[in-house]
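FAQ
Q: What does a multi-component entry look like?
A: The components come first, one per line:
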Amino acid sequence: QSALTQPASVSGSPGQSITISCTGTSSDVGGYNFVSWYQQHPGKAPKFMIYDVSNRPSGVSNRFSGSKSGNTASLTISGLQAEDEADYYCSSYTSSSIVVFGGGTKLTVL
Amino acid sequence: QLQLQESGPGLVKPSETLSLTCTVSGGSISSSTYYWGWVRQPPGKGLEWIESISYSGSTYYNPSLKSRVTISVDTSKNQFSLRLSSVTAADTAVYYCACSSWYSKYWYFDLWGRGTLVAVSS
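Then the predicted structure of the entire assembly, as tokens:
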């Protein structure tokens, strides 16, 4: 099972919105609404940010939102803040009953 | 509040077996709503799911590691463990134990340990 495809890096200025894409196949992202997103600051454990494509766990800012179209899921961060600078990983359940992650995207807040 | 803490050797020799334990505090490892798992991250690289286990003992493995991996739960100690055999330098990584505590789905990890770096070297 191949990793999901994410851009290596994205950037934005404070207050702006950015979107990170996550492309898979009909066997994972496109086939199930079981896409999740994680935020990871340097040297820290990942943090669970989005589940079931677009749902936010309790305590996660509503500036973070998720969506999906076909085989591509997206994470949008609005009102960008300095503290959002981190690595972001998407993940999906697959038809093989396994978990696959994306390669990660480094977000830089300019 | 549920918390996870990894423990184990920080250095393992090539061809030997890597063994890590995750101690669960603030809740029972036997809860029917929890799934427990391991995720690793090689230095400077992305996340890789290793395996997960349910409260009932059902296991789910990354097929690329399945032949070398064993996960188990010790309810008496409120711990779960990872064993990875025949390690090579490619297994050098930060190993995280993680949990699906609210969603009852082994493919979500809403709680993570701090991670422990394991280096494979002679």
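Q: Is there any commentary attached?
A: Sometimes. For this entry: The mean pLDDT of chain B is 95.
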